[in-house]
Design brief:
The protein has two domains: 137 residues, Nucleotidyltransferase, domain 5, CATH 3.30.420; 168 residues, ATPase, nucleotide binding domain (Nucleotidyltransferase, domain 5, 2-Layer Sandwich), CATH 3.30.420. 38% of the residues lie in helices and 19% in strands. It contains eight helices and twelve strands. Strands 3-2-1-4-7 form a five-stranded mixed sheet, with helices on both faces. Strands 10-9-8-11-12 form a five-stranded mixed sheet, with helices on both faces. A hairpin with a 4-residue loop joins strand 2 and strand 3. It is globular.
Length: 326
């Protein structure tokens, strides 16, 4: 008897990851390919189909129930990728329809942070939570908001862009030329910029001082902090402070049970979490203090990109099944 599976696809600016996932959250097979979004979307779809078909044949299954896709600026309602800043396909790309034309399966699409939130709710640390916020800390800052057990999409499908909220009193230029956006401080990109600010402001020796901006990576800053480098530690303290202050606003809006962090910056552990928790509590109203858990994802060692996209399918299929029962 074949096991029902779904296809999870995560489209990134550099790589597209894909895999086959069963209902229990087991990734039966996975792989990746360059996105190459500078090429026409048709070329991407041809390569994706070839790679997916190869993986399906390798696993030896035909019991595919649907396809879930996480992508930048992906709109759950319309099924389109809309004006994604880090993809070469400009304007509006009707990705859901294009994929359905190939596979004739139910296709669901959302942004990667929303997909991660659904994956966390279905398979991770949020399995028993009804109200939480997922924060993904990578090249940018993404977020998925769950209220009363439901992901919040908003009126147009683009709710939850916490990374593009404004940080009071901060003026660093971020995406789209806007000043003071959270993502320009709390992200891998923001971490690099802060590291150079700290090197200018501090006199302590640091292993980061001999690395140019273009060669510096978030991993380097994290590893330096874990080795006790004072500049790297100060960089994370500043990053955690900005994050904690901003999340106090999120708590005032939503009163979540927890805020869950996922992504490369969380590898710094206490160097990020402790200042973030401290400045979260300092800036909370008394009615919220000592209630909000700031915790790491329960899916850190798994392919959350693929698992989250696949979870979107299972979540929507379960909803459809409940509707047909009643």
């Amino acid at each position: 008897m074949e096991t029902d599976i779904v296809i999870g696809i995560d489209i990134g600016g550099t790589f597209t990851k894909y895999g086959l996932v069963n209902r229990m959250g087991e990734v039966m097979g996975e792989n990746a390919m360059p996105t190459k979004s500078e090429e026409p979307i048709d070329s991407f779809l041809e390569r994706l189909q070839s790679n997916l078909d190869g993986l399906i044949n390798e696993i030896g299954t035909t019991a595919i129930k649907g396809i879930g896709i996480g992508a930048p600026n992906a709109n759950f309602y319309s099924g389109n990728i809309e004006k994604a800043p880090n993809l070469g396909w400009k304007g509006i790309v009707p990705l859901r329809k294009l994929i359905q034309d190939i596979y004739d399966l139910p296709v669901f699409i959302t942004n990667d942070a929303n997909a991660a939130a659904i994956g966390e709710m279905r398979y991770g640390i949020a399995q028993n939570m009804q109200n939480f916020v997922m924060i993904t800390l990578g090249t940018g800052l993404g977020s998925g908001i769950v209220v009363n057990g439901q992901l919040v999409y908003g009126a147009d499908g683009f709710a939850g862009e916490i990374g593009h909220t404004l940080v009071h009193g901060r003026h660093r230029i971020g995406g789209f030329g806007r000043r003071g956006v959270l993502e320009s401080y709390v992200s891998v990109t923001g971490l690099k910029r802060t590291a150079f600010k700290m090197m200018a402001d501090m006199v302590e020796p640091s292993e980061l001082r001999d690395i140019s901006f273009n060669h510096l990576t978030g991993v380097m800053v994290t590893q330096a902090a874990l080795r006790g480098d004072p500049v790297a530690i100060a960089t994370y303290e500043y990053t955690g402070m900005i994050l904690g202050e901003a999340l106090a606003n999120t708590v005032a809006h939503l009163s979540p049970e927890a805020i869950i962090l996922f992504g490369g910056l969380t590898k710094a552990g206490k160097y990020l979490l402790e200042p973030a928790q401290k400045h979260l509590e300092i800036n909370l109203l008394p009615i919220y203090q000592n209630k909000i858990k700031l915790i790491l994802s329960g899916l850190q060692d798994k392919n959350v990109a693929v698992l989250g996209a696949a979870s979107l399918v299972w979540e929507e299929l379960d909803k459809l099944e409940k509707k047909t029962k009643y």
